[in-house]
């Protein structure tokens, strides 16, 4: 005669089934406190009227959101940010992809060169901007001296002041700092491409570029899109490098969304209007991410 199985107490069964949720509960709580609370608070502030000289906590409706459509300086800042993104992002992708393909081969001192290439990505953008401001200095910077040596005559280019040179200066600095980020991600992706496919294509007589375009690139496409999303989001909030190089000048020529928000919030102290700006940026970033992710799904 078999003895009946002993059933564990209900509270023990409940604890066992929900133990995984108990483990992640502290992390979720901290994410909600750190992320959700500022989000909700900023939303509430955007519907109030808080400035340096006025502390009106009553509901002011969509007053500040209506101002967004009349603020020409804001839309110029969005245009400047879009230009930086449209130029810097493809350059970082192309240079990162070329470097990744180069270092996919066995090269002498490969580890040393990879380590040196990664150095710009670990430098603070504030430090990078300050360094490049010294490099672009029209009196003591090496850039003008090198150009003068090449041309054989003195050349004085006001990189951070002249309207026709500030964009190249910022893009050079941005591409220099963040191309290593793209390089590392793409190098890891290319290292995991199925070698049997590449070898089969080479046996069939496919050239290097055909193998690269028709086999390697489609294989790393999802990783490439994620890398582009990360860099695009970072470029949309571009602040430190531009602030160090030009402070948004000359005039407002290089003023990005982040710099404009900084001016409104921490120089002019229009707190509620800055809250509305924050939600505009959130909507823009959400649209970018949703569009990019939808393209990845379509590609699959």
Task: Walk me through the structure.
- It is a single chain.
- It is built from 13 helices and 2 strands; from the N terminus they run H-H-E-E-H-H-H-H-H-H-H-H-H-H-H.
- The chain has helices at residues 10-17, 19-46, 63-68, 72-102, 110-122, 125-135, 142-151, 166-191, 195-203, 208-236, 240-245, 257-267, 271-299; strands spanning 49-50, 55-56.
- Strands 1-2 form a two-stranded antiparallel ribbon.
- Strand 1 (49-50) and strand 2 form a beta hairpin.
- Helix 4 (72-102) packs across helix 8 (166-191) and helix 12 runs antiparallel to helix 13.
- The chain starts with 9 loop residues before the first helix and ends with a helix.
Short description:
This protein is mainly α. It is 72% helix and 1% strand. It contains 13 helices and two strands, in the order ααββααααααααααα.
Topology:
Elements: H1 10-17, H2 19-46, E1 49-50, E2 55-56, H3 63-68, H4 72-102, H5 110-122, H6 125-135, H7 142-151, H8 166-191, H9 195-203, H10 208-236, H11 240-245, H12 257-267, H13 271-299
Antiparallel strand pairs: 1-2
Helix pairs in contact: 2-13, 4-8, 4-10, 5-8, 8-10, 9-10, 10-13, 12-13
Q: Indicate the overall shape.
A: globular
**Number of structural domains:** 1
How many helix segments?
13
CATH superfamily: MetI-like
The overall strand count is: 2
The biggest sheet amounts to: 2 strands, antiparallel
How far the N terminus sits from the C terminus, by CA atoms, comes to: 59 Å
Low-confidence stretches: none
CATH architecture: Orthogonal Bundle
Mean pLDDT: 86
Order of strands, widest sheet = 1-2
Q: What fraction of residues sit in β-strands?
A: under 5%
């Amino acid at each position: 005669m078999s003895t009946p199985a002993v059933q564990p107490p209900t509270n023990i069964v409940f604890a066992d089934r929900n133990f995984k949720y108990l483990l992640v509960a502290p992390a979720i709580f901290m994410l909600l406190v750190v992320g959700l609370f500022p989000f909700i608070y900023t939303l509430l502030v955007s519907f109030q009227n808080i400035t340096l000289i006025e502390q009106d906590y009553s509901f002011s409706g969509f007053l500040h959101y209506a101002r967004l459509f009349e603020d020409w300086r804001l839309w110029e800042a969005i245009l400047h940010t879009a230009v930086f993104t449209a130029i810097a992002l493809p350059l970082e992708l192309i240079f990162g992809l070329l470097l990744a393909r180069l270092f996919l081969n066995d090269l002498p001192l490969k580890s040393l060169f990879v380590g040196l290439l990664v150095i710009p990505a670990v430098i603070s953008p504030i430090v990078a901007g300050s360094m490049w401001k010294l490099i672009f200095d029209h009196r003591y910077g090496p850039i003008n001296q090198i150009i003068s040596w090449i041309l054989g005559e003195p050349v004085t280019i006001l990189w951070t002041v002249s309207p026709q040179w500030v964009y190249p200066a910022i893009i050079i600095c941005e591409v220099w700092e963040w191309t290593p980020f793209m390089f590392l991600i793409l190098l890891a992706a290319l290292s995991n491409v199925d070698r049997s496919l590449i070898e089969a294509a080479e046996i069939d007589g496919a050239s290097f570029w055909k193998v690269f375009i028709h086999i390697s690139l489609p294989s790393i496409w999802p990783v490439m899109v994620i890398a582009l999303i990360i860099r695009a989001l970072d470029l949309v909030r571009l602040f430190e490098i531009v602030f160090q190089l030009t402070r948004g000048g000359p005039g407002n020529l290089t003023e990005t969304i982040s710099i404009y928000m900084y001016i409104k919030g921490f120089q002019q102290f229009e707190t509620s209007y800055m809250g509305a700006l924050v939600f505009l940026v959130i909507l823009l970033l959400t649209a970018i991410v949703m569009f990019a992710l939808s393209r990845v799904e379509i590609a699959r």
